[in-house]
Each structure stands twice: as C-alpha cells, then as structure tokens.
User: What shape does this take?
Amino acid sequence: MPAKAITVLISGRGSNLAALLSAMREGALDGAITHVVADRPDAGGLAIARKHDVATTVVDHRAYSSRADFNAALAKTIDRVAPDLVVLAGFMRVVGADVVARYTGRIINVHPSLLPLYPGLDTHRRALADGVRIHGCSVHFVTRAIDAGPLIAQGAVPVLDDDDETSLAARVLAVEHRLLPTVVGWFCTDRLALVDARVRLKGATKCDTRSLLVPAA
Ligand code: GRF
Assistant: This one.
C-alpha cells in the first residue's frame, strides 16, 4: 500500500504539523506530508515545513478581494497536489464548499474543545468562564457546517482551579499532539472512513474505560 499523501493547512505556529512530522519520523505514522498550505506568509509552521523539506504554498487571504476568490485559489492549490488526505491543523479560515465536497471523508480538522461545545474561537476562555470541569479537543471530518462534522476522536483533560487560559490551552494542546497523529495514522492504514455520514473505525481496540473525575474524589 503506497503511503498516503497528506496536505496540511495551517495559519499559525504549526505545532500540530510538527507533531505529525515527528510521528512520521519516528515511524509511528505511515503517511507522507507532501504539501503545507498557509493562508498567511508569516505562519510559523511554514518554517517547520521547510526544515523538513516539505513543499509549501502561501495562499495569502489578504491578496483576494472576496472569499470566493480566496477559496478558488485555495482549491486550485490543493488540487494541484491531489492529496489523499487534507488536514486542517490550526487553519483559521472556512474552507469552501467545493473543497469540502471534493474531499468528503478525506478532510479532517483538529479543534480545541470537546465539540459540540465551543465551536469557533476562544474555546479555552469560554470553557473557563463556564466553569466546566472537563475540557479537551476533537478531531472531526469537515463538513460545510463549521466545527461540526462527524466526530472521529476526542481527548479530555481536567480543568484545574488555578487554570488560566494559557495553562489550560497548553494542557489541551498536548492532547491534540497525541490525538491528531493517531487519527491520521488510522486514515493512512485504511482503518478510518466516513460511510453514510457516520464515522467507521476498523479494528478499534478497547479504550481506557476509567472515568476522569474532576476534582478527584
Ligand atoms: C490548535 O489549538 C488547534 O486546535 C486550533 O488552533 C491551534 C493551532 O495550533 N484550531 P498550532 O498552529 O498547531 O500550533
């Protein structure tokens, strides 16, 4: 089975991209990131991609006068490489409907909350303001609805009494860095699929069924 070609879309520092690259380097993930696309030239993750000799393209959102033009340029950029999988890893723009349609079941997003709670921005601040005791992250298939596609996997963390946005974000990010490579690994070994809008994972091993009690009793 040839390694799957993966395009990663980023807007920022690219720590999830780095987590994917290091899982590949360690042999924990059998896929190849062949292309990284950023919507801004100052995205820190571009340097990470270049360091690993991954081809990069910037589709600068400021260079387009309309969302439709930007989406058309983005679609063209993705299609040029024709990846098996598109991963949104901190990509801060809504992907156009045509890309979503063309890559249905082959486009995933990592989001820093336990969806359907807190779609959108400022997830950690909103979780703290609500006083939730458990927070986390989700990886889901991308659909036209923002941060709302079928959930593939989630990781949970406790919210501690002395947490602020920074400490909570760091705890969640550490889980993102485990969760995203795990899900991409499932896809790369043909274990993961979207069938009739439902997530199918072949050969799922039993998960840890211990409860996360917060605060601990
Ligand atoms: C992550 O928390 C991701 O879930 C969110 O934006 C952040 C991106 O971080 N959408 P990085 O660019 O991968 O470091």
